[in-house]
Amino acid sequence: MNIGVIGTGNMGSMLISSFIDSSAVAPPQLMITNRTISKAERLKRTYPGIQITSSIEDVINFAHIIFLCVKPHEFYPLLSKHKSNISKDQLIVSITSPITCEQLEDELSCNIARAIPSITNQALSGSSLITFGKNCSEDCRKKLLQLMKSISNPVIIDDSITRISSDIASCGPAFIGFIVQCFIKSAASETNISEDKATKLASEMLIGLGKLLEKDIYTFPTLIEKVCVKGGITGEGIKILNEEIGDVFNKLIARTHEKYDEEREKIREQFKKI
Q1: Of the candidates 20, 196, 217, 243, which lies 20 to 30 Å from 57 by C-alpha distance?
Q2: Along the 274 residues of the chain, how does pLDDT read in single tens digits?
Q3: Within this chain, do residues 23 and 74 fall inside the same structural domain, yes or no?
Q4: This model's pTM is above 0.70
Q5: How far is CA 121 from the centre of its chain?
Q6: Helix (H, G, I), strand (E, B) or coil at 92
Q7: How far apart are CA 67 and CA 25, in angstroms?
Q8: Residues 40, 10 share a domain
Q9: What residues contact residue 24 under an 8 Å CB cut-off, 6+ apart?
Q10: For the chain, what is the largest distance between any 2 Cα atoms, rounded to a whole number of angstroms?
Q11: Do 120 and 126 form a contact (C-beta atoms < 8 A)?
């Protein structure tokens, strides 16, 4: 099964390396392209068997499954120029949240799906968010799920929860990383610990926490309960967090959804022109 990737930015490159590292796809089964072809050439230096091209048409003619890893505003010109070359048996997979499967199905007569990855997939872990178009064949559904299962835990979601699911699964690593980085900087500024030592301790803590959750040893509530010994130090820290965090995540979610709505409105205007 040949795989095409159009766009080798952060997420496109991550998908390519993850598919190969998981042995789900052999390098010769991949053809990739990017507007700045030097980015694709860097991947080929790491994985010499990958096929690269400067032509989107080459990718379309080569691949059974094509991942569109371009920015949302680039979908309109790309589809407008190349949709006549896409056959009904191919599977087009968008990785961007503002564009719906329904919008793509209105313009393309092929199989459509959306697969939103997470940076955690580079470690062959974490979730990916899958939505299928209503006309996507059972065979294409199985092939995409099998492919994404090689690098993640694919979770099928309805379009109505796309943004919040992406906030948690895809944006979440950056949000949590930012919080932990703040914790590290405060530790270094308030005590004698170095940032390097605090970073190592925090990293090991997160890895261990992930393993506890992976093995279903604790849930988040039971984990907090277990660490917070009555009258102990952790409990005092939790009190501060409870007082200070307040509605910060409500505000975060409201802002990501506001930005999402702005992007979707721009996309709707573009697709009206096709």
Answers
A1: 20
A2: 999 999 999 999 999 999 999 999 999 999 999 999 998 999 999 999 999 999 999 999 999 999 999 999 999 889 989 989 999 999 999 999 999 999 999 989 999 999 999 999 999 999 999 999 999 999 999 999 999 999 999 999 999 999 999 999 999 999 999 999 999 999 999 999 999 999 999 999 999 999 999 999 999 999 999 999 878 999 999 999 999 999 999 999 999 999 999 999 999 888 875 4
A3: yes
A4: yes
A5: 8
A6: strand
A7: 14
A8: yes
A9: 147, 150, 151
A10: 68
A11: yes
Give the other-Cβ count within 10 Å of 22's Cβ.
15
Name the token pair of 23. Answer: 């042995």
- Per the structure, how many domains does the chain have? 2
- Tell which phi-psi region holds residue 4, choosing left (phi > 0), alpha (psi between -120 and 50) or beta: beta
Task: Tally the C-alpha atoms within 13 A of residue 148's C-alpha that lie toward its C-beta.
Answer: 26
Instruction: Say if residues 37 and 11 touch (Cβ distance below 8 Å).
Output: no
**CATH code for the domain in which residue 78 is found:** 3.40.50.720
Do 75 and 44 share a structural domain?
A: yes
Of the residues 137, 163, 189, which one is the last residue of a structural domain? 163
Residue 271 tokens read as 């697709």
